[in-house]
C-alpha cells in the first residue's frame, strides 16, 4: 500500500504526493523512474523533491491509502541499461584511462559523459568489445551495503562524492571488473544484459565526449531499425551496404555539379531574356515583369535595365529597383496583401500567392502616388 497524503494540480498536471514511495524517482543517479499504477491511476513520472515523492498521475484521486503496482518489465530494462553503463564506464577506464563524469538514461538510449575531449573510433570499439566480453562472461553482480568509511578504503571506480552523507553506502560489485557506489537498479548477472552497443558520440561542454549506447532488448530493437533503414537505402541506391558511402558521395558530387550547371544556364537565360521582358509604363517608371523560373529570376536584376523589375517566384514576388526606395514599396504592398515581406533599398520580396494581374494592379496604384 502507498499512503497518498496530498493530491495537487499544477499546470494541468495531477500529482499524488507521499513521504515514502516504492516508486524509484526519475533522474536519481541518472536513472529513469518507475511507472505503474496507484489505485486505478496511471503513473507517468515520479519526482523526488525535498523529501517528498510527486507521482504524476492520469486522474484525480482522493488522499488515502492505495494498492500500487509497478511495471516490472520496465524495471528489468532499466536494470540492464544501468548495469551496462557500469560495465561500459569501467571498460573506458581500463582501455583509455578515461573517467565517466555523468550518466543519463532516457526512454530510447543512455549516455555517459567521458572526461576527454575526443575519442578515436578504435578506442570506442576497444572499450565496447571489452564491455561485451564481460557481459558474455556472465559475471555475478552483487550489492554491498557498507559504511562510507569502509567504502572509501575499497577500490572504487570513482571516489565517493563529498555530498555522500555518513552512514550506509550501497555499492555495486561486478566481479573483479568494477566496484562503484550506486542506488539504482541492476541485474544480478551480466549475462542478463545480452550486449551493449555504442550508437553515437559527440563532443560536449567543450572538453567532454558524450557516448550514446543501448543494451539488451533496446540494442536488438535498434539493430532491427538500422537493418530496415539500410535495406531501404540499399534498394534506393542500388548498392550493397559496403558500397553505400561511396555511392552517396558520388551522388552528392553529381548533385553539386548539376547545381553549378543550373546556375550557369539560368544566368545565360537571364541575359537572353532581360531585354525581352514584357514592360508597362506607370507614371514615369518603366516596369518589367517576369513569370518563370526562380533560378532565372535571381539573375534578372543584374541584366534588366528598367526602373522596376517584378519577378513572380514559387514563394511570391521579388522586386528590384534602382530608382525607388524598394523597402517602402514592399512595406506598402505587404500591408495591402496582408503578407510577410522584407528587403532593402534596391531589392525586396513578398510572400503571397496573389495573381500577377492583381499584383500589377496594386503596384500601379502605389507607383502612381509614391514620391
Ligand atoms: Zn549506477
From TrEMBL:
It is found in: Cytoplasm. Its main location: cytoplasm. GO terms for cellular component: cytoplasm. Residues 1-225 form the Alanyl-transfer RNA synthetases family profile domain. Its cofactor is Zn(2+). One of its GO terms (biological process) is alanyl-tRNA aminoacylation. The keyword Cytoplasm does not apply. Pfam families: tRNA_SAD. GO terms for molecular function: alanine-tRNA ligase activity; aminoacyl-tRNA deacylase activity; ATP binding; metal ion binding; nucleic acid binding. The keyword Metal-binding applies. InterPro entries: Ala-tRNA-synth_IIc_core, Alanyl-tRNA_Editing_Enzymes, Thr/Ala-tRNA-synth_IIc_edit, Transl_B-barrel_sf, tRNA_SAD. SUPFAM superfamilies: ThrRS/AlaRS common domain, Translation proteins. Keywords: Aminoacyl-tRNA synthetase, Ligase, Metal-binding, Zinc. This is Threonyl/alanyl tRNA synthetase SAD. The lineage of its organism: Bacteria, Thermotogati, Thermotogota, Thermotogae, Thermotogales.
Amino acid at each position: 500500500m502507498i499512503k497518498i497524503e496530498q493530491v495537487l494540480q499544477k499546470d494541468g498536471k495531477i500529482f499524488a504526493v507521499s513521504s515514502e514511495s516504492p516508486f524509484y524517482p526519475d533522474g536519481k543517479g541518472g536513472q529513469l523512474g518507475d511507472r505503474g499504477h496507484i489505485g486505478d491511476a496511471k503513473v507517468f513520472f515520479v519526482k523526488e523533491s525535498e523529501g517528498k515523492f510527486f507521482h504524476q498521475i492520469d486522474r484525480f484521486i482522493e488522499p488515502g491509502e492505495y494498492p500500487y503496482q509497478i511495471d516490472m518489465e520496465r524495471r528489468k530494462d532499466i536494470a540492464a541499461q544501468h548495469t551496462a553503463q557500469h560495465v561500459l564506464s569501467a571498460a573506458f577506464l581500463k582501455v583509455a584511462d578515461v573517467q565517466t563524469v555523468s550518466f543519463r538514461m532516457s526512454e530510447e538510449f543512455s549516455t555517459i559523459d567521458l572526461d576527454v575531449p575526443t575519442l578515436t573510433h578504435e578506442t570506442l570499439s576497444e572499450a565496447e568489445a571489452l564491455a561485451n566480453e564481460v557481459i558474455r562472461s556472465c559475471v555475478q553482480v552483487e550489492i554491498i551495503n557498507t559504511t562510507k568509511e569502509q567504502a572509501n578504503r575499497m577500490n572504487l571506480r570513482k571516489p565517493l562524492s563529498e555530498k555522500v552523507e555518513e552512514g550506509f553506502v550501497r555499492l555495486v560489485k561486478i566481479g573483479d571488473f568494477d566496484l562503484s557506489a550506486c542506488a539504482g537498479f541492476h541485474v544480478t548477472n551480466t549475462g542478463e544484459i545480452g550486449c551493449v552497443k555504442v550508437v553515437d558520440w559527440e563532443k560536449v561542454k567543450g572538453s567532454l565526449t558524450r557516448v550514446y549506447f543501448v543494451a539488451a532488448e533496446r540494442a536488438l530493437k535498434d539493430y532491427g531499425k538500422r537493418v530496415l533503414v539500410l535495406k531501404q537505402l540499399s534498394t534506393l541506391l542500388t548498392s550493397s551496404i559496403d558500397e553505400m558511402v561511396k555511392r552517396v558521395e558520388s551522388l552528392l558530387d553529381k548533385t553539386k555539379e548539376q547545381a553549378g550547371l543550373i546556375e550557369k544556364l539560368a544566368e545565360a537565360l537571364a541575359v537572353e531574356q532581360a531585354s525581352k521582358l514584357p514592360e508597362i509604363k506607370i507614371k514615369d517608371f518603366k516596369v518589367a515583369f517576369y513569370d518563370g523560373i526562380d533560378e532565372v529570376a535571381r539573375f534578372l536584376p543584374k541584366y534588366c535595365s528598367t526602373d522596376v523589375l517584378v519577378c513572380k517566384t514559387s514563394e511570391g514576388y521579388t522586386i528590384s529597383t534602382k530608382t525607388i526606395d524598394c523597402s517602402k514599396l514592399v512595406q506598402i504592398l505587404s500591408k495591402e496583401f496582408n503578407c510577410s515581406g522584407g528587403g532593402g533599398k534596391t531589392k525586396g520580396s513578398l510572400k503571397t500567392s496573389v495573381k500577377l494581374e492583381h499584383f500589377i494592379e496594386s503596384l500601379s496604384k502605389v507607383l502612381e502616388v509614391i514620391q
